[in-house]
From TrEMBL:
GO biological process, one term: L-serine catabolic process
Stretches assigned to the ACT domain: 362-438
SUPFAM superfamilies per record: Tryptophan synthase beta subunit-like PLP-dependent enzymes
Organism of provenance: Himantopus himantopus
GO molecular function, one term: threonine deaminase activity
Full protein name: L-serine deaminase
Primary gene name: Sry1
Superkingdom field: Eukaryota
Lineage: Eukaryota, Metazoa, Chordata, Craniata, Vertebrata
Keywords assigned by UniProt, alphabetized: Lyase, Pyridoxal phosphate
Length: 438
């Protein structure tokens, strides 16, 4: 049964001005009209291959004054929402192409999803990665079942090599784009959120250059209920989507492509389909600071036991930053789309987030080098219930009086108020104590 609505007309109008030529080598149907029934068909076809992830009420709701529901897409097998679009893309390929195989060239969530689902579908899959790729990513991709080839020192070298192999061997070269098939797969998130959370007022998505999730899900949600507010969130450092919307076309000359912390949200704006749909169907796009993203990652780890990357945390960061005051008292769903954060980066992010949240602080003071002075300092810290993380003493290079010692302490506190109390207590006893500003 064909479903026709005002929102389908909106989608048709949004895509009517898109040029029909494309330099992409992977798919020829990239500019087909995206209809609600296409997204429904995608949901039916991929239901046995991807997780129907929970959309759960969050304990963060009281803290931010609204009913928050978290759509936990990071629970997908490869830790990313990209699986939805990739699986529908692969199952839509002609059988002869499935026999020949596919090839990708990056270490992104898209490539990881292709590696896993192509292997599950018994499609030969090759992943070309540069020699600078994290060994953990290479190992994971091989464990998913892909043939991984290291080539070149840059992503561009890998892509050139992948295209050449595709041409010589008949593989289909895949790169993340905004074809109707891929967007329909990603749009199934919108269907699930609408089904799982009744009476929704707003849904928040990660945005940035790769805004396929935002565009595809907006198409589904706006068809089901035009009154649901759709909000995209990107980084202030890489406002790719906002700049592209302002220019009226995808921005191609960004120098910030694929920042290692932000991942896909810092990439180039890759297609007109997503951009036009976003311009027509998305109500608001906001930008947040890196500090807000880090605190958002900390909140999700503490309150939800969810270890996510910047792309997964950036939606909540809009609430952390206070960018959406109009949502107070509303029912809001946030899509937590990715959880692929490398361990060494996770450690750095959490340490920095604790500092930004005023829960780890450092101070220095000069004491006389007499027995018991360090003990008195530790007694004050114990009385104020501050946990000592590190303490260092410097005698040789102290520039003050002779026979003094410079002590530098790093301590953990409960919150900003506790930090202020500790600072006042130390300044009362040691007026020259110097605090290291974050």
């Amino acid at each position: 049964m064909k479903i026709v609505s005002r929102n389908e007309e909106l989608l048709r109008d949004a895509l009517s001005r898109i040029p029909q030529s494309s330099s992409r080598t992977s798919l020829s149907s990239s500019n087909k009209l995206i209809r609600f029934e296409d997204i429904s068909a995608a949901a039916f076809k991929i239901q046995c291959g991807v997780q129907k992830t929970p959309c759960m009420y969050s304990r963060l709701s009281k803290q931010y004054g609204m009913d928050i529901y978290l759509k936990k897409e990071f629970l997908q097998y490869t830790g990313s929402v990209k699986e939805r679009g990739v699986l529908y893309l692969l199952t839509s390929l002609p059988q002869d192409q499935q026999r020949k195989g596919v090839i990708v060239a990056s270490d992104s969530n898209f490539s990881m999803a292709v590696a896993y689902h192509a292997s599950e579908l018994r499609i030969p899959v090759f992943v070309i990665m540069s020699t600078s790729t994290s060994p953990a990513r290479v190992k994971m991709c091989r464990e998913y079942g892909a043939m991984v080839i290291s080539y070149g020192t840059t992503a561009k070298d890998s892509q050139t090599h992948a295209r050449r192999l595709a041409q010589e061997n008949g593989y289909l070269y895949l790169e993340e784009e905004d074809s109707a098939v891929y967007l329909s797969g990603l749009g199934t998130v919108g269907l699930e959120v609408y089904e799982q959370v009744p009476k929704l007022d707003a849904v928040i998505f990660p945005a940035g250059g790769h805004c396929g999730l935002l565009a595809g899900s907006a198409a589904a949600l706006k068809h089901l209920n035009p009154h649901i507010s759709i909000i995209g969130v990107e980084s202030e450092s890489f406002p790719v989507l906002q700049q592209s919307l302002k220019a009226g076309h995808p921005i191609e000359d960004q120098a910030c492509s694929n920042h290692h912390f932000y991942g896909d949200v810092s990439g180039l704006c890759f297609g007109s389909n997503s951009l036009q749909l976003t311009g027509k169907l998305v109500d608001k796009v906001v930008a947040v600071r890196e500090e807000d993203v880090l605190i958002s990652m900390l909140r999700l780890l503490e309150y939800e036991r969810a270890t996510v990357d910047a792309e997964g945390a950036i939606g909540l960061a809009a609430l952390v930053a206070g960018k959406l005051p109009e949502l107070k008292g509303k029912r809001v769903a946030i899509v937590i789309c990715s959880g692929n954060l490398e361990l060494h980066l996770l450690q750095q992010c959490i340490a920095r987030a604790l500092t930004l949240d005023n829960r780890v602080c450092r101070f220095s003071l000069v004491l006389s080098d007499c027995p018991g002075d360090i003990s008195k300092l530790l007694e004050i810290l114990a009385r104020e219930e501050a946990r000592v993380l590190d303490i260092k003493q410097e005698r040789t290079f102290v520039t003050s009086e002779l026979f003094t010692v410079e002590v530098t302490c790093t301590v953990e506190t409960r919150d900003k108020i506790h930090t202020a109390q500790l600072r006042n207590a130390l300044l009362e006893r040691y007026p020259t104590a110097a605090w290291t500003e974050r």
